[in-house]
Write a structure and sequence with these properties.
heterodimer, A: alpha/beta, D-Maltodextrin-Binding Protein, domain 2, nine-stranded mixed β-sheet, B: mainly alpha, MetI-like fold, 13 helices, flat
Chain lengths: 426, 307
């Protein structure tokens, strides 16, 4: 009797299709890191997802990884680097799908609480945190438990092109400059025919809460339950930020607010003053080695206030390689190799408690006056902590853009902002 | 004898049943490569999104039951009506432009022209070009201060709009770029429709002395209605789902003036941590598209010529 081969053929075919589909669906995750986290030779692989090395510091991160792997035989770090734009969405999706890396950088300070309270982060309270600046460590604890370690901090200063100041016969900015001094210089430095702009400061939420602080105001009231920016200080902040657009600062139509626009303008020698973070030092040094530039503490209105940001790194609560992940976490945030690499490459500042360890940072030039980075920390404007941060940022950005484009008065924009933001704070 | 017949027929039935099962197995096997991905990547996520829409979920922690709250909040939010309004405005502006333009080009390229193949390919190139590249080109073309379009308008002493920097012109900017990009697709469908029209009907009308415009309006256009119906259905569905071009050209701005439904779904999910509300909005959009398509399907009986 002839035996039918169809059942075997069909079973084999179905198995092949299923295997193909499963292979297609398989993605590394903290719970199933693309196969075994521990290899046959006992080697452990720790997946590490980050954004901070993207666009210029990939090799610096690799230096730290290489040193770690040398010091920790049997542990391999699999680096996954993504651009900052879209990183938050990528991490959020990975966590939702259980595909997050064992160790990952948190997108920004504001998202820490959401992650910690959602149970996505491993409790690392047992780790020794004495090496870190206490204020930064405290920012990543929730309900008495430590959920992340600070990995770097940075702030915003005023970069300026010395050659453009010299050509205009102006003296360089100093630490006691105010907005009025900056505005006057920017007007004289702007030469639209030559494509030279006097100033660049993003018209955004981050700049707004800082400008508010520079005018003696604050975004939220003391209780943090309602807005406090619809005030004289708020009015001055809106006027300061939006009044530059098209006068001493390029407009959206000129390309402002597009990626790398400000960096390109500054390194091409067509921007006299640039409000930006110290994370851009490396790009300027690398792309414009002959540019004659320096920095100064950002001018204030009635007082100084500089924006400060910090990044943090955490371990997935679902990671199967907690011990190795902790070793990498500590190494990446506080090892001497990390500190040396960060300082040598101007890749933000390490969050160390011992300020003497940062001295090497001051010896690197340009900029010659690096001390301004630390001087800026004397008066800091921290981002308001709000649950619906992103929506609030969008509201503020939209209203500021409307004023800059002449579609709304500062008074109307502030009033709109207040009513919309207060609604979200309830 | 009769028991033998019964046994034989029972055997035959069993064989037939086995054969039917075997056939069904083969059918399933051959369907599997397309059916399984459809199930895993389309149907399952749809069911999951319906479930998520009944919850509050920030995609990091666990979900909490919300019932129909997400739907109620969306339907009572001015923002929802605003993004649906922007989307409708886009559809209303885009559809006539892309259909009219596509028809014009299809009719032109259905003539015996030199370099006809080259021209057909050229019009199709934007369809297969990345939206990022197209958006960059159109941002430059429509740049309010340095763009080619405003330069030409200036030469003609015509008003120069702020295009993507002006809330009133942001959606029209996206419509222009979208219509330009999709013209080639519409042209190809309509061209195929034109070529399917029997030549003898046209020739008979010509012999009868019907002028060119009359031939087009009374013969070509009615016989092109199946292709027209397909183009309108597809364009409307794509129109309601507009996202890429808005995201790359205006980012929904200025000041939210060009934010569309899918853009809002993206923001709710990935920026605001409101996956439940985003899923609910996805279902509202699905219902709108379904209703519009059903109305078209019912209406087509009156105007589509299937002869």
């Amino acid at each position: 009797m002839k035996k039918s081969i169809w059942p075997r053929t069909m079973i084999a075919s179905v198995a092949m299709i299923a295997a193909g589909l499963m292979a297609g669906c398989t993605q590394g995750s903290a719970t199933n890191p693309g196969g075994d986290s521990t290899g046959s030779d006992g080697e452990v692989t720790v997946r590490f997802m980050n954004f901070s090395s993207n666009d210029g510091h990939e090799a610096d991160l690799q230096t730290i990884v290489d040193a770690f792997e040398r010091d920790n035989p049997g542990v391999k770090i699999a680096v996954e680097t993504s651009p900052f734009a879209g990183y938050a969405a990528k991490l959020q999706t990975a966590v939702a799908g259980g595909a997050e890396a064992d160790v990952f950088e948190l997108p920004e300070n504001s998202s820490f609480v959401s992650y910690a309270q959602s149970g996505a982060l491993a409790d690392i309270s047992g780790l020794d945190t004495s090496a870190y600046a206490p204020s930064l460590i405290a920012a990543y604890a929730d309900a008495g438990k430590q959920y992340a370690l600070p990995v770097s901090f940075s702030n915003v200063v005023l970069l300026y092109n010395k050659d453009l100041f010299d050509a205009a016969g102006l003296s360089y900015p100093t630490a006691d400059w105010t907005w009025a001094d900056e505005r006057a210089a920017a007007e004289r430095l702007t030469d639209r025919a030559a494509g030279v702009w006097g100033d660049y400061q993003p018209i955004s939420y981050n700049e707004f809460y800082k400008a508010l602080a520079q005018s003696g105001g604050s975004f939220l009231n003391a209780a943090g339950a309602a807005t406090a920016f619809n005030s004289e200080a708020g009015l001055q902040a809106v006027r300061w930020l939006t009044g530059k657009s098209g006068v001493t600062m390029p407009t959206d139509a000129d390309g402002a607010n597009t990626p790398d626009f400000d960096t390109t303008l500054f390194i091409s020698g067509q921007l006299a003053m640039w409000h930006t973070g110290i994370w851009n030092f490396g790009a300027v040094m690398e792309k414009a080695p002959n540019l004659n530039w320096d920095i100064v503490v950002e001018p204030g209105n009635t007082q100084n206030a500089s924006a400060m940001f910090s990044n943090a790194v955490a371990i997935s609560a679902k990671s199967k390689v907690q011990e190795a992940a902790q070793r990498w976490l500590v190494y990446y945030t506080s090892s001497q190799t990390t500190i040396d690499t960060r300082l040598a490459t101007s890749w933000e500042l390490p969050p160390v408690a011992d300020q003497a360890k940062l001295d090497a940072y001051l010896t690197i030039t340009p900029p010659a006056h690096r001390q301004a980075v630390f001087d800026s920390l004397q008066a800091v404007a921290l981002a308001p902590v709000m649950l619906r941060q992103e929506e609030i940022q969008d509201i503020v950005n939209d209203e500021l853009a409307a004023v800059a484009a002449g579609r709304a008065t500062p008074e109307v924009a502030l009033s709109n902002m207040q009513s919309k933001v207060d609604l979200l704070l309830k | 004898m009769s028991s033998l017949t019964l046994e034989l027929s029972a055997d035959r039935l069993a064989v037939r049943r086995r054969r039917r099962w075997r056939n069904a197995g083969w059918v399933l096997l051959f369907l599997a490569p397309s059916a399984l991905p459809l199930l895993v990547f389309k149907l399952a996520p749809m069911v999951a999104s319906a479930w998520v829409s009944l919850h509050r979920w920030n995609m990091i922690g666990s979900m909490s039951w919300a019932g129909l709250d997400n739907y109620r909040d969306l339907l009572t939010s001015a923002n929802t009506w605003q993004v649906f309004g922007h989307t409708l405005l886009y559809v209303v502006g885009y559809l006539p432009l892309v259909y009219g333009g596509g028809l014009l080009i299809a009719v032109a390229l259905n003539q015996k022209l030199k370099a006809r193949g080259f021209l057909r390919a050229s019009y199709f190139v934007p369809v297969v070009t990345s939206w990022v590249a197209v958006a960059l080109v159109w941002q430059w073309l429509l740049n309010p201060s340095r763009g080619l379009v405003n330069h030409l308008l200036g030469l003609l002493h015509l008003p120069q709009p702020g295009w993507w920097t002006d809330p009133a012109w942001a959606i029209p900017s996206v419509i222009l770029a979208s219509a330009w990009k999709d013209l080639g697709f519409v042209m190809v469908i309509l061209l195929a429709g034109l070529q399917a029209i029997p030549q003898e009907i046209q020739e008979a009308a010509t012999v009868d002395g019907a002028p060119r415009w009359r031939r087009f309006w009374n013969i070509t256009f009615p016989l092109l209605t199946p292709a027209t119906f397909f183009v309108i259905v597809i364009s409307l569905i794509n129109g309601f789902q507009v996202f890429d071009q808005v995201y790359t050209m205006t980012g929904g701005g200025p000041s939210g003036a060009s934010q569309v439904v899918v853009g809002r779904i993206y923001d709710l999910t990935f920026r605001y941590g409101q996956a439940g509300a985003a899923s609910a909005l996805s279902w509202l959009l699905f219902i709108v598209i379904l209703l519009v398509t059903m109305v078209q399907n019912l209406g087509q009986r009156k105007w589509v010529n299937h002869a």
